[in-house]
Write a structure and sequence with these properties.
The structure is a single chain. The chain is of the alpha/beta class and 336 residues long. It has two domains: 260 residues, TIM Barrel (Alpha-Beta Barrel); 65 residues, no CATH class. The chain is 49% helix and 18% strand. The protein has 14 helices and twelve strands. α1 packs across α2, α6 crosses α7 and α8 crosses α9. The longest helix has 18 residues. The protein is globular and about 55 Å long. The protein starts with 7 loop residues before the first strand and ends in a 6-residue tail after the last helix.
Length: 336
Amino acid sequence: MAQVGKIGIAISGGPSPAEIVDLVVLAESLGYDSAWIAEGHGGDQFAILAACAMRTSRVRLGTSISSVFVRTAPTIAMAASSVADLSGGRFILGLGSSHKVQVEPEHGVAYGKPLARTRETAAIVRALIRDGRVRFDGETVRIENFDLWYTPQHRDVPIYLAAVFARGVALAGEVADGVILTRSTLDTATIVRQQLGDAARQAGRDPSVIEITCLLPTAVADTRETALAALRPGVALYAGFFPRYNRLMAEHGFASEAAAIAAAWARGDRETAERAVSDTMIEATSIVGTPEQCRARIEAYRRSGVDTPILSPFARGRDAKARCEAVIRACAPKAF
């Protein structure tokens, strides 16, 4: 069987923590290069990744993403260092700012200057893991002194930054080991690679070492129509609830759909919001269809310039684990 490029799997809520560990073990057995855990309302990502580390031996393990607002920078550093230690250096710290509509009402934490906060958190995490001690006087974070009471075994934990728009991509090019895109089209990676390269070169870095990954909503079914129906609620949620993703969809060329979804969501009309999600909108930013169609779409993303497509099943309810498992099996490298 021919060798294919790297593929990741991301779990974002739905399955329980123990079920997620089982799914990551399965993904490793089927040749996935990486497994990524979101948090949101889905369980503590670092605890889940630590459990994954103890039951796997090869697959890279990452956060997608860890919010720089809901944990302190030293807490993130200790968590990252712990999972890196337990996994034998297989851990990737994915950082991002999350969203004001989540951070403030759900966590009671003030949200402001997200790019500065992300930059400073990355710097603190790197310094603390590398040196065992950090002092920092920044624009958004000030730490008088924090020291580790142990010696990290892996002092160079890769940091990937989530990015949706140009300024976030530029920050990743300046300071990160990789970028985590989301809901991209086949045109996105070419633009992002140029933006990363410009920022990296200005910072005196080699842009070729920066990995481009992309979280892609994924649904596999016997028919294209069934798969589209499975993803439609998730697209409506993201475009309706998150202003940043609504803007992203509009910039992808779906301005009328984005406006209709936002208006319906603001009225509390979820059904109308879902009906406003067109098939074309789903297909442009997702992996969706039969197993053959999904595998072809993965290859198309890779050819477009995405180093690691990361499949992200949208699964809620009692059958969440089964729906994630179906994606993992149908799109596995060993199935190509």
